[in-house]
Amino acid sequence: MRIFDVVTLMDPEVIPERTKIHLATWNGEDNPIDVYLAGSFDEWQRCQTRRNFERPFVIALISLPGINKWLYAGVHASAGCEWRPDREFFYYTLQERPLCSEFNGRLVANFARPGRQSYLNAENWTDHLLVEEILRQRIRIAEFPGFRGVDLAKPDLDWVVVHGLESWRTALSSVAGVYLISDPTSGKLYVGSACGEGGIWQRWCEYVASGHGGNIELERLINEMGVARASAFRFSILEIADVHASTEDILRRESHWKDVLLTRSHGLNAN
Question: What are phi and psi of 73, to 5 degrees?
Fold first, then answer.
């Protein structure tokens, strides 16, 4: 299905001949996906070094990790711009089209960018701009925040793994270590470990596949309450180690954290 089949169905006024496509990519200072996740994309898009939005509508597509993947960030009506000499850019008056907002942050497009062009007349590319998938929830994950900053809800971990976000995959597959799964619904914790090649990434991929990763207590919860129960879990990292560290050393550190956090007696560790 083409993107404009969806957009025009939502808002018949937004047709390709009246629309400019904005392919938002790294500009040397900002990564637009980070800007979007921070909630500042609409304002960021208003600032243009040239008169790039001289059509009634602008459809925004933000570059995603992977080949030819773009996140749909909505349609805006353009009501002209003013030159800001102090900042040396044109500041556009852009008004979001509410009828086109249902799939904001959820629709992933497949489109082969023509060279380095970022501003395209939509009618020339309608047949090439295709829907690849529609996510159940809006994307919320930015680049890898560092091991101390990891705190992922299960749906977000699913998104990271399914889409193979490069910064996350590279970081998590480079280390072994001890991780924590918390269940906000009950307040209970589970301590686990990852050893050897593939590191934490490989282990967490198993949770994405099954929901429980083979852990007895987590599996019991899911069997009793359904697969959706796993969506409440949150994943974080307690400590990291070299992927070549011995299994015995990793298991020793895992046992230490189980003792500290009382996860055998009051948590989700069976042993």
Answer: -115, 25
95 by Cβ neighbours in 10 Å (0-12 / 13-18 / 19+) ranks as exposed
Query: C-alpha 5: how far from its chain's center?
Result: 25
Q: Of 56, 22, 53, which Cα lies nearest the Cα of 36?
A: 22
182 membership: H or E segment, kind and range = strand 175-183
pTM for the full predicted model: 0.63
d(CA 229, CA 188): 14
Residue with tokens 């009051």: 266
The size of the chain, in residues, is 271
The closest alpha carbon to 251, from 269, 233, 230, belongs to 269
Question: Could you tell me which of 48, 59, 49, 52 has the C-alpha nearest to residue 17?
Answer: 59
Tokens read off for 89? 């850019």
Query: Do 53 and 23 form a contact (C-beta atoms < 8 A)?
Result: no
| Spatial contact of 176 and 204, defined as CB atoms under 8 Å apart | no
**Extended strands (E) in 97-144:** 107-110, 119-121, 130-134
Tens of pLDDT, residues 174-210: 999 999 999 888 899 999 999 988 999 999 999 998 8
